[in-house]
Specification:
YCII-related domain-containing protein, alpha+beta, Dimeric_a/b-barrel, YCII
Length: about 120
């Protein structure tokens, strides 16, 4: 059975990505390394900050696109899928096809680039 581990961080922790890189990334590298050594990792990606997100809702058949992750409090994160497409417009087109787009929302966010070798 597979499980998705979806990490929510405080604003202060996200700020450490740029300001306290050795401690922040060192802890994440150790954690991810341990899971890799245990042979349990199947995939995933770090996300760029929420300010890079675009949220799509469909109301009355019309797209409502907003900058940022504006999810109603009644909405709960239901999953995480990584796609590779040419640009944000293509990603939004796929988001619009999601079953939850009419009643909930789909957050579209770029992923972090892979670590340098």
């Amino acid at each position: 059975m597979q499980y998705a581990l979806i990490y929510h961080e405080t604003a202060a922790e996200l700020a450490r990505r740029d300001n306290d890189t050795s401690a922040y990334w060192g802890a994440w590298d150790a954690y991810m390394g341990a899971m890799g050594a245990a042979g349990i990792m199947r995939g995933g990606a770090g996300l760029l900050p929420p300010t890079t997100a675009t949220t799509l809702r469909i109301a009355g058949g019309e797209w409502q696109v907003e900058d940022g992750p504006f999810a109603d409090t009644r909405e709960k994160l239901g999953g995480f899928v990584v796609i590779e497409v040419a640009d944000l417009d293509a990603a939004l087109a796929w988001a619009a096809r999601a079953p939850c787009a009419g009643a909930g929302s789909v957050e579209v966010r770029p992923t972090l680039p892979p670590p340098a070798a």
